[in-house]
Specification:
By secondary structure, the protein is of the alpha+beta class. It has helices at residues 33-41, 52-55, 71-74, and strands at 3-6, 27-28, 31-32, 46-49. The strands form two sheets. The chain has a two-stranded parallel sheet with strand order 1-4. Strands 2-3 form a two-stranded antiparallel ribbon.
């Protein structure tokens, strides 16, 4: 499972802190928001939708194609 964090709605509310990192990488206590969700969900694969200049540093979501046995039948 892939956990994706988005800055779309709240990015400007946390300026100037979000000039250097996505909202999910902000620290609240001992953990960042992304670390907290990883711990809760037991998920290790995370990615971010963030501003273009930050996207180079923080991993972008991968587009995964689900495969199922019928794919061989339909692929021609």
């Amino acid at each position: 499972m892939q956990l994706v964090f988005s800055d779309a709605q709240y990015w400007e509310d946390f300026l100037p802190l979000t000039f250097t990192r996505p909202v999910a990488e902000m620290r609240c206590g001992i953990l960042t928001f992304s670390e907290r969700w990883q711990k809760i969900l037991g998920n290790t694969e995370i990615s971010f939708f963030t501003e273009a200049y930050l996207q180079k540093k923080f991993p972008e979501p991968e587009k995964k194609r689900k495969s199922f046995p019928g794919n061989k039948f339909f692929a021609q």
